[in-house]
Amino acid sequence: MTGPPSRTGFAAVAAAALPSLPLAGTTTAARIVTLPYRGRIYRSDGSGRIRVSSDGGPSCALHSDLGDDNSVTGLAVDRYGRLDATIRHARWDFDLVLAPDQAAWLTT
Hints:
By secondary structure, the protein is mainly beta. It has one domain (9-17, 31-107). Helix content is 8%, strand content 42%. The protein is built from 1 helix and 8 strands. It has a 4-stranded antiparallel sheet, with no helix packed on it. A 4-stranded antiparallel sheet has the order 5-6-7-8, with no helix packed on it.
């Protein structure tokens, strides 16, 4: 007997995040942010990790792990066409931009 089909890619990320989502009316929800950028899809589940998919979403890989003390609260393309990540550390927010090599993050 076989079990249910396994989840891959972003479906697995979303399934892993579901148990941590709070009930309606609470404000501690991890916000899932997804953004297409230069042929890839970048996604964060509100943790300090950003995942990337090169095939439109069926599979994903860890792009960046910014640590458990940080959370990614936003992804956006800035006015210069760069991918911008808003990071929260304690009560402080700061922005990082994806470097031209699309591997490292730079402070703004």
